[in-house]
Design a protein that fits this description.
heterodimer, A: 10 helices, B: Ferritin, 8 helices
Chain lengths: ~650, ~240
């Protein structure tokens, strides 16, 4: 549609003129993380609103080889490494105990658990069925493993390698889906963009576009079904082509600098129109041209009058739509091209029946209510995004955050002059099956050219009533930020080390960091395993931390996102009270009264406790209104649940 | 840093053994210094494993990337649209970093390293370093002088490379015509890089040591993603045929 406009004027599409680079926001140099001294195990560190509980170097066989992703089961953290898997007992997080080191090389050794099964991804060419470390010398070999290895970890100190599922492109990452309606199987979605194997090595593998070859292993994902009582029968059950017909237009969400520029221009009287759902400035030369035409149309001469300007301002949108064929609504995109080739990662959120697919140039929202047959709901592209890498939903499934692993993770993309919108997170709200861009978030502190740094893996921290995430930025360290207001994400804690080496680039940093049962556990590519805990600050109270720590899981795969539910507790109610106080909209008296009543209730027991809590709940209910109504309702519900449990 | 050059031979041997042998028996925990020495020894050891195809790929891809820099630098001065300027700026940033990565890869393995010089549309590459005096991908054809169009010439056989005439044609274009030509040529250029990675991956024993697989596959997925993006941009240009 835009093309009509462009042809009419013989100029570039208006959208292209308007969507140009605004002044890029850039990282700050005024930060404790800037200028940290280098070192492998003795780098200088900066830490804010966190406490480091322990740092443990890798086991000897794994030192100097990349540590990758993490999964958790019970007291154990399972850490992937390009040389295999390490399993740590974290029952004393100050002294992680290495209980298992399983040498079985594969990149990237992405790990997941379910029940007594451990799944490990193999993608590179050197992975072997026999776990040998010698690599594979020929392009076609019966010894090669590319796909998913399956281990029985019923004795976690002695994993038993029970099965493989070989795939045409191997497995860069994978996600395990436990369908709430199926207790006999789990499903593994396999992602990765590596080359297709020769058919001589794995029969049936073919590359090319689906038009050229309907059997092509490109432009599709693999769904593996794993029967829980017979993992040896695990097999690919579907290869859905979820990308077909995907041509979402290339645009980008407005960065804060763009928004400021827009507001300033409007304050100066600039004309704006809405194209494809985005408000955009109309270049002055079009305005002048249209004004001149209006003067001519009314048979006048000379400069346009104020009346001409007013009329144009009122009619700008309809003129643009009629004469130039643009549309205020986002376009549907044309049905052509096979779309992206593969996904890098898919985050499954079975409780809400959705998945976020990060797939080359697109972010996808998928319906996974039928686990074998995922379907695409919508897709977004963003011209500031290089390579869509991973997704994290907020707990209630109304927002999703995608990461851009610009440069693949091996490049220093957080230097002071790298744009803040590149290699960042993009936050979208989910509205009736559509993804609406809200903002970008990138590590605020500039890093050096010898530190690989870009947005990477993370998870939610279950602080009730807020959306808080902890995220790895490789050698940028870990950053914890609040994205409750999706347009204004704010950093609230961090940890960073200096580079591994001051002069020479060396790959390192946090690959993954996830919250698990009160711990924040980070897999450091070169340094090993770090464990942290939150400490209270102006951004987070002890009550909020205590409430988060009431959430306990039996296991965690961050890419199989669990829904957090908070058991009734005084900490939960107090966290909400703290949050209501933080808004500044409630009287000190009301807050103090609520706290006194909670103290009395906690000191009491049985019927007396119930009575105080119910009284407070009724009091909150009576005042529930205004901008904090939702939060007050959460507080009321938490009070009634606590009363019921008393 | 210094630890790398002050390794005790026993640790180097231990590291090499660890790369090729099954699990070592768990011995007493190593001290931080010993772990660090082992770390650097493994970094060294990881660079010992490479094939001629790996070296040829890295060497060639530096020249290939360098031509993308020549093209991208034109966007600003040739009146490209903001969208193309944004794309070109990111290609420039990304490929500059990747060139450094590949140069480091070659240097770490004692191979000759192509150094890139750009003057306008002229790209010059000269080889530095290497353990043997005669080392080099094809030193006889490398342009050592400051005058001349070396890469377009010498690397004409690499897929997707533009000729000097095509570079000059691109540099003469302005505005929308520049955009169209830039996207068209860059798509072809990127497709060539994708083929180069495919060729590398199709050779026996390639891309298994150190970070070779990662470097090559990161290049491939980035460029494949960018090809799709550029094709969309081209399709949306005025005068594009449906």
């Amino acid at each position: 549609m835009r093309r009509l406009f462009a042809r009419t004027l013989g100029l570039l599409p208006l959208a292209a003129l308007l969507l140009g680079p605004a002044a890029h926001a850039q990282s700050t140099l005024d930060d404790d993380r800037v200028g940290l001294a280098a070192g492998l195990f003795d780098a200088e560190e900066a830490i804010w609103n966190l406490r480091k509980i322990s740092s443990t170097p890798p086991a000897e066989d794994f030192v100097g080889v990349t540590n990758s992703d993490l999964a958790f089961k019970g007291d154990y953290a399972i850490q992937g490494n390009y040389n295999g898997v390490m399993i740590w007992d974290l029952s004393d997080p100050a002294r992680p105990e290495l209980v298992t080191e399983y040498l079985c090389p594969a990149s990237q050794s992405d790990v997941s658990v379910y029940g007594d099964l451990l799944f490990v991804s193999g993608e590179g060419f050197g992975g072997r069925l026999d776990c040998g470390t010698q690599g594979v010398d020929t392009q076609v070999s019966a010894d090669r493993l590319r796909g998913i290895r399956i281990f029985d970890i019923s004795d976690i100190r002695s994993p038993e390698y029970v099965a493989n599922v070989q795939t045409c492109r191997g497995s860069h990452t994978h996600s395990v889906l436990k369908d709430p309606n199926d207790d006999e199987n789990v499903y593994i979605y396999v992602s990765g963009s590596a080359p297709v194997r020769p058919a001589e090595e794995l029969p049936g593998c073919a590359s090319g576009t689906p038009d050229e070859n309907p059997e092509s292993a490109m432009f599709r994902i693999e769904v593996i079904q794993v029967p829980l009582d017979n993992p040896q029968a695990a097999a690919i059950v579907n290869s859905p082509r979820i990308f077909e017909g995907l041509t979402a237009p290339e645009e980008h969400g407005p960065a804060p600098a763009d928004i400021r520029a827009m507001e300033e221009a409007k304050a100066r009287g600039a004309y704006t129109i809405v194209i494809g759902g985005n408000e955009q400035l109309v270049p002055d030369r079009y305005v002048q041209m249209l004004l001149a035409q209006m003067v001519e149309a009314r048979g006048g001469e000379g400069a346009p009058t104020a009346a001409d300007s007013t009329m144009l301002r009122e009619q700008m949108q309809s003129i643009a739509e009629e004469r130039f064929g643009i549309s205020a609504e986002p376009s549907e995109g044309r049905e052509e091209g096979p779309g992206p080739n593969q996904c890098h990662d898919i985050t499954l959120y079975p409780e809400i029946g959705l998945a976020g697919g990060a797939c080359e140039g697109y972010g996808l929202l998928l319906d996974i209510s039928d686990p074998v047959r995922p379907t695409r709901i919508t897709a977004v592209a963003d011209s500031n995004f290089s390579y869509w890498h991973s997704a994290t939903f907020n707990n209630d499934g109304t927002k999703v955050l995608f990461t851009d692993e610009w440069g693949g993770g091996g490049q220093p993309k957080c230097r002071a002059d790298d744009p803040k919108e590149w290699g960042a997170n993009a936050i979208f709200s989910i509205d009736d099956g559509e993804l609406d861009f809200e903002s970008y978030y990138k590590l605020p502190a500039a890093q050096t050219a010898t530190e690989n740094c870009v947005a990477h893996n993370g998870s939610l921290i279950p602080v009730p009533g807020r959306d808080i995430m902890v995220q790895s930025w490789y050698q940028g360290g870990i950053s914890i930020f609040d994205w409750t207001d999706p347009q204004n994400p704010v950093e609230i804690a961090y940890h960073d080390r200096g580079p591994i080496d001051a002069e020479q680039f060396q790959m390192g940093g946090s690959w993954s960091v996830y919250w698990y049962n009160g711990m924040i556990v980070s897999s450091e590519i070169a340094r090993g395993l770090d464990v942290f805990e939150l400490v209270p600050s102006e951004h987070l109270t002890q009550n909020e931390i205590d409430a988060a720590n009431t959430v306990e899981f039996a296991y965690l795969n961050a890419q199989g996102q669990p829904k957090y539910d908070w058991p009734p507790s005084f900490a939960l109610v107090r966290a909400y009270v703290d949050q209501l106080e933080r808004t500044g909209r409630h009287s000190a008296g009301d807050i103090a009264t609520a706290r006194q009543m909670l103290a009395s209730a906690e000191a009491a027991s049985g019927a007396q406790r119930r009575q105080i809590l119910t009284e407070l709940a009724d009091g909150v209910a009576a005042q529930t209104s205004g901008p904090d109504a939702a939060k007050m309702e959460m507080a009321e519900n938490a009070l009634r649940a606590l009363a019921a449990a008393s | 840093m210094t630890a790398r050059y002050a390794l005790r031979p026993s640790l180097v041997l231990a590291a090499l053994a660890a790369l090729t042998a099954p699990a070592l028996a768990q011995t007493d925990a190593l001290s931080a210094e010993e772990l660090e020495a082992l770390y650097w020894a493994r970094q060294e050891a990881a660079t010992q494993r490479f094939t001629d195809a790996d070296v040829a790929f890295m060497t060639g891809m530096i020249g290939h990337h360098a031509q993308a820099l020549v093209m991208s630098e034109m966007a600003e001065r040739n009146g490209a649209s903001p969208a193309v300027r944004r794309l070109a700026a990111r290609i420039d940033n990304a490929q500059r970093d990747e060139i450094e990565t590949m140069q480091r890869w070659l240097r770490d393995r004692g191979q000759p390293v192509p150094e890139v010089h750009i003057e306008g549309t002229r790209l010059m590459i000269h080889m530095t370093g290497g353990e043997g005096e005669h080392a080099g991908m094809d030193p006889g054809q490398m342009d050592h002088g400051p005058h001349g169009g070396g890469m377009a010439h010498d690397h004409g056989s690499m897929p997707g490379m533009l000729t000097q005439a095509q570079l000059d044609e691109l540099d003469a274009a302005r505005g929308a015509e520049f955009d169209r030509l830039f996207l068209t040529y860059m798509i072809g250029h990127h497709e060539g890089a994708v083929v180069m990675v495919d060729d590398l991956f199709a050779s026996d024993g390639a891309a298994q040591g150190g970070n070779t697989f990662k470097v090559a596959s990161d290049i491939q997925v980035d460029q494949r993603t960018e090809i799709a993006r550029m094709q969309l941009m081209l399709d949306q240009m005025p005068g594009a045929t449906d």
